[in-house]
Each structure stands twice: as structure tokens, then as C-alpha cells.
Amino acid sequence: MTRSMGRGRLHLFDLDGTLIRGSAASVEISRQLGLTEEIDALERGFLVDGLAPDEFAVRAHALWTALTPEHVTAAFEGAPWLAGIREVWADIHAEGGRCAVISLSPDFFVERLLGWGADSAHGSRWPSVPFSQPIHRPGILDAAAKVSITRRLCAEYGLGLADCVAYGDSMSDAQLFAAVPLTVAINADHHLAGLSRHAYTGSDLREAYELVRKDAA
Fold it and tell me: Is 126 within the bounds of a domain?
């Protein structure tokens, strides 16, 4: 039976490495502060050495003592975003679907995507910029949190996991990819090998989205 592409579907987007190609919110923020080498070391610790997300956040927070809202704006506007994000989200909405971004990155960066048309945006809870408070470790998301947030959104929208489409690129998406039947690995690393239904390499979200459209046809 042919199913309308967007109707009844909840599309779940990772941010780092997925919507932002080859980079991450933390990298773009650190670039604005002249801390590229320092954040590269932290990223290696997370990706290679198993640094926990909450410890990563504590260490990044210590690096970003000079961070201002202007830095965040420049980082967001200068990030290497995939082309076609707004267009894809508009098409999903036109078909009756919903779009959510779920990311381990700071909420003050992730939530800016609400202005691009995301129905909801979920990031790790950080103190307001400029910082006057420390990191609250329980507020930092991990891979399991992506699944729990997805379940909560499904309950809110009256959907099931079978009604979801997940887009991701790395180990932080693996648990969600295991839980959701329709998945797209975008510029992904080896952690999603064998877990994704579709794989896309490129710089335009519209092309990755087309793989899902064809799947539903």
C-alpha cells in the first residue's frame, strides 16, 4: 500500500555531522574563540577514547569562558550546513509530517533550528550564555536519550516508532537507528554500518530525503 511521504511521520534529525557536514556545533563555536586545537583534542577523546558526553560538556564549558551570544550567532551562521534543510522541512510539513532535531550539542545552539522550521529541537541543557553557572551533568544528553526523547514525542503526537524516520551519522545515533525501522545514514562513519536502511554521501539534504520518498512510494 502506498503511504503519503510525510503524513503521520515524525522525522528525527541529528545535528553534528548530519545537518552540519564534517563539523559540529562545538567545533564551530570553538573556531569563533580561536580554540580549534583544544576542541579537536576533546572531539578525539569523545569519538576515539570514549569520553562521556557529560565530561565532554564540562571540559568544553571550561574552554568557553569568553563565549558571548555574538559568538554563538557567528558559529551558527557560519557552520557548513547541508543545503535544502528548510525546503525538506517545508515539504514534510506540507505532507502532514513533523520534524524534530535531537542532538547532544548545547541547547542554545540546537534550538536556533526552530527558526528554520523544526517543530521541536532538543539539545543538552547548558547554562545561558555568557556563562554564570556550571554544567549540570544530568542535563547533558547521551545516545540513549535520543531514544527516550523520540518515545516521548511519539506519545505526544500519537505515533509509534514505526512512524518515525531517523537521520544520523555516528555512534550517538546507533541506539536510535536500532529502534526505528526507517533510517538514513548521512555522511556516516562505521558505527552505523549495517544499521541504516539507506545511506547518503553528499551535501544536500533534499537528496537524502528523496531516498525516503522513494522508499514510501
Answer: yes
Judged by phi (left if over 0) then psi (alpha if -120 to 50, else beta), residue 26 lies in alpha
pTM of the model: 0.94
Residue 185 CB contacts under 8 Å (≥ 6 apart), including other chains: 168, 169, 177, 192, 195, 196, 198, 199, 200
pLDDT of residue 217: 60
Give Cβ neighbours of residue 1 (< 8 Å, ≥ 6 apart): none
Cell numbers standing for residue 26: 562545538
Nearest to 3 by CA among 202, 187, 215: 215
Task: Give the residue among 61, 64, 215 at the shortest CA–CA distance from 126.
Answer: 61
Alpha-helical segments (H) within 95-180: 107-110, 143-157, 174-179
Domain with 193 in it = 10-21+81-216
Percent of the chain with pLDDT over 90: 87
